[in-house]
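thread from #wetlab-drylab

HS: before we spend reagent money on co-crystallization trials with glutathione, can we at least see a predicted complex? here's what I'd submit
DV: go for it
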Amino acid sequence: MMSVTLYGFWRSLAAFRVRALLHYKEIPFNEKIINLLEGDQFSADYHERNPQHVIPLLEHDGHRVTQSLAIMEYIDQVWPERPILPTSAIERAYVRSISQITIADTHPLVVPRIRNYLNKTYGQDEAGQASWAQHWFNEGSLAIEQRLKSDGLCGQFTLGDQITLGDFALCSHIVGARLFGADVSIAPTLVAIADRCLATEAFMLSHPMKQSGAPIKK
Ligand SMILES: N[C@@H](CCC(=O)N[C@@H](CS)C(=O)NCC(=O)O)C(=O)O
């Protein structure tokens, strides 16, 4: 098998989604750390790999794939065992749609470059940035909770009782919300699904706080 390299960082929610999928599919990989707090994403070497200066990036078989959603779908196609996309068109649309609430509509508002901009341009200190992040996590949590209830397709997981793409996205949402101190109790169905994911080995191993460089919990 060609080697698989994930460029990630302990705190990155997008890298967490991809790392969890690699573990879920039992794909051997090595992870190279891009320390976002030290600005490694702007280094010349990383610029050549991903001129957008964001992680995750997956290297496999001479290919470079960016954007966690694209990476997860790439992985699912190249390693079809334990598929994460349902076969019916409507269920596929459902898991992609619910995933995008966090991947496209929530997470981009809380990434370092946004928080740095809030700080530099609008003078928001750490507390101001945390309150901003909590607001957007709450909006996302409520939107996802509503969809889980109204679509009526979830079970133990986002779609019925099997892990799908939706679970990698939703679990990263809750892990991020907790890291930023948001009140996740506003979305009990979502939390129950995320905690079921976090009880599995793949998600547990991939959790941001279990990665090298993460602060030790006292
Ligand atoms: N939509 C992208 C998000 C990529 C992204 O913004 N990643 C963050 C870490 S989770 C990052 O590298 N941020 C660097 C920065 O903001 O400077 C994905 O899902 O892969």
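DV: Residues 126-151 form the longest helix (26 residues).
HS: ok that's useful, forwarding to the group
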